[in-house]
Amino acid sequence: MQEDVITAAGDDIARTEAIIDGIARTRRRMAELHAEEARLLAAAADLAREQAARGETSHPSGDIPLRSIAAQIAAATRASDRGVQARIGYAAQLTADFPETFAALAMGEIDPAHARVIVDAGMLISEPEVRSAYEGAALDVARREAPGRVRPIVRMLAQRLHPVPLAERHRLARTGRRVCVQDADDGMAELIAVLPATLARAILDRLTQVARSTIDARNPTRDGAALFDGDARLDGDARLDLDAQLNGERGMADTRTLDEVRADAFTDLLLTGHSSPEASNGSIPQGHAIRAHVQVTVPLSTLAGETDEPAELVGHGPIDPDTARRLAGTATAWTRVQLDPVTQCVVAVDTYRPTTALRRLLEVRDEHCRFPGCRQPAARCDLDHTVAREHDGPTELGNLAHLCRRHHVLKHNSAWRVRQRPGGVLEWTSPTGRVYPDAPARTLTFAPAADPPPF
């Protein structure tokens, strides 16, 4: 029997490895095909420019050749010609202005999502030499991080290299703030607010707090574990069992997802001034202030007004210096972050308020869940002992990290393993033995020097 179990486990590992290898190869081929399509779309752009230069149309707009080619491609591929024309424009920019990114995509080193993130952020840079330096630094990050993590990092890179100060661009961009509605199907619509990033993130954070409080008040727990985590509905027997507990006691169970409760709270707050359903009133006392949590990292020289180096809004990317100074001026607590001058790792923090220094340091170091690719903010994560307390794991910097509930549960209930390396690097090992290192976000936010040193 023992040999049968060992044989089955070995067979499972081999099959899992084969699946992972197959998917990885498929993803590389897909990236290569995306690059080939981009090359053909860029050729279509070149042809359209040549036709326009020969004066083959008398239309005043001058883009009829491009429209015509886009329409032909769309008809052949059963796509929207407007969408095809947008893809042609992106492909032309990718191949012409970001050749290293295009080459990495063609070799399967990065995904199309990585390429899109790099191009979108790099569009701000007009000087070819500076853009090339940005591209090289961005690719270094993209080759080892998920697109969601790459986005704020490359935004910071691009902002630091942009010739126009961020403060000036932000003042202009603020004039475009607006609220609009886009109608959707089935009696629905999208309410869209374009706001400064700090305000938008704060609004979302407050709605999330209201929603989580509502869910916690309406859904009981069993053995200390929530039956409904707010991100997904319960299935099968668990749902029926929960309904049986609630019927006759609290009425029908609240089966709304976190997104649904967040949307309902948004509606109630705007239309009534407070979150008015019974669930919200029962869990949140009227008049109780729910303060949004926003984490901003500001260089000391910017805070002192000596430079206009961009600050960073965690989860978004760069924000203008004036907004950062205003937030710092009204903050109830400051945290001074000390970085290693070589590795840029967070080595210490000082607080001016008697809070738990270790918790603050970890929040600054991690910024988000430390499972590879996850972007759940640290403020909504669990603080996990890498080596469990019951196994004599110490409560110290080298044994703690933020994990979202999903990955916290995965760590303790699967064959995934993790250990901490120097510099806050978490080394994750998959059930089949593959190793995935995850470095703290602070070590990735660097900018290439405009004038490289002579060595």
Can you walk me through this structure?
It is a single chain. The chain has helices spanning 2-53, 64-77, 81-97, 99-106, 112-122, 128-142, 147-161, 166-174, 197-218, 236-246, 258-272, 278-283, 300-303, 321-330, 357-366, 405-413, and strands spanning 178-183, 189-194, 221-222, 225-226, 296-297, 311-313, 317-319, 335-339, 346-351, 382-385, 400-403, 417-420, 426-429, 435-438. The chain has 455 residues and is of the alpha+beta class. The protein folds into three domains: 2-164, no CATH class; 195-283, no CATH class; 332-444, no CATH class. The protein has a three-stranded antiparallel sheet. The protein has a three-stranded antiparallel sheet with strand order 12-13-14, with no helix packed on it. The termini are far apart. Keywords: Endonuclease, Hydrolase, Nuclease.
Number of helices: 16
- Reading the helices and strands in chain order gives HHHHHHHHEEHEEHHHEHEEHEEHEEHEEE
Q: Sheet bearing the most strands, described? A: 3 strands, antiparallel
The structural class is: alpha+beta
Query: Count the strands?
Result: 14
Q: Report the span from N to C terminus.
A: 63 Å
The percentage of residues in β strands lies in 5-15%
Tell me the overall shape: globular
The proportion of residues forming helix, as a percent range, comes to 40-55%
Spans where pLDDT lies below 50 across 5 or more residues: 221-251, 276-290, 444-448
Kindly report the spatial arrangement of strands forming the biggest sheet.
5-6-7
The average pLDDT value, as a whole number, equals 79
How many domains in all?
3
Radius of gyration: 26 Å
GO molecular function, one term: endonuclease activity
InterPro entries: DUF222, HNH_nuc
Protein name: HNH endonuclease
Keywords: Endonuclease, Hydrolase, Nuclease
